[in-house]
From TrEMBL:
Coiled coil residues, start to end: none
Protein name, entry field: Anaerobic ribonucleoside-triphosphate reductase activating protein
Molecular function GO terms recorded: 4 iron, 4 sulfur cluster binding; catalytic activity; metal ion binding
Annotated organism of origin: Candidatus Kaiserbacteria bacterium RIFCSPLOWO2_01_FULL_50_24
Annotated CDD domains: Radical_SAM (cd01335)
Length: 229
């Protein structure tokens, strides 16, 4: 596999672990708030080979616990991704997978073959209105299956939602929490429009901290823990 990005060390992307991050190229969604357009549009200028990642890992043995695989959407890489995960595990490192949940088959194989140690799955909207947020036709049955797989598999996981006011109403946020009812960990990710000049516009796209806290506390009617990032 070739990767479109690489970060040698993160303390925040894999809960409780030190990790490096690899970014896969390509995505089957077009979320308007995406921070990685060059990966999604496959216009990355620099790529990183698997062998380079493994050489790096060997040099950090004992310092780094694992590898975060994010994108883009990693599961689009099918067997190549499974092979990469297996090679990481064989070298004794942990694997965290970030996914948009569109490939429950791969998720189930990765979990059943013990190729993944932590999964972070985006739940982008209530299932009935998913297409509005992701900008592409979406197989809702696949998203539902990925949610159910994580709820029942025993592998550590989190669900997470990027909260953009113009895309998700308070009712939508409650709807998402209801659809992942029983989850152990759920995060509301604050959408920050840092480069926006006009504060009026900022108020249109960002919820206030008080509003987010109300959503967080409401979500805990359905899930064991809800945090804000
Ligand atoms: S699923 Fe993730 S990588 Fe793909 S467009 Fe949405 S935010 Fe970007």
């Amino acid at each position: 596999m070739k990767f479109g990005g690489f970060v040698p060390c993160t303390l925040i992307d894999y809960p409780g672990k030190t990790a490096c991050i690899v970014y896969t190229i390509g995505c089957n969604f077009r979320c308007p708030y995406c921070h990685n357009p060059e990966l999604v549009n496959e216009t990355v200028e620099r790529t990183f080979s698997e062998s380079r990642i493994f050489t790096f890992l060997e040099s950090r043995r004992g310092v780094i616990d694992g590898v975060v695989i994010t994108g883009g959407e990693p599961t689009m890489h099918g067997q190549d991704l499974l092979l990469f995960m297996r090679r990481v595990k064989e070298r004794g490192f942990l694997v965290k997978l970030d996914t948009n949940g569109t490939n429950p088959n791969l998720l189930e194989v990765a979990i059943s073959q013990n190729l993944v140690d932590y999964v972070a799955m985006d739940v982008k909207a209530p299932l009935s209105t998913y297409h509005r947020v992701v900008g592409r036709p979406v197989d809702i049955g696949a998203i539902r299956r990925s949610i159910d797989t994580l709820l029942s598999s025993g592998v550590p996981y989190e669900f997470r939602t990027t909260v953009v006011k113009t895309l998700l109403s308070p009712e939508d946020l409650e709807g998402i929490a209801r659809e992942i009812a029983g989850a152990s960990r759920y995060y509301l990710q604050k959408f920050v429009s840092s480069t926006i000049l006009n504060p009026q516009f900022k108020r249109k796209v960002e919820y206030t901290d008080v509003e987010l806290e109300a959503f967080r506390s409401n979500a805990e009617k359905y899930v064991a823990f809800c945090g804000i990032r």
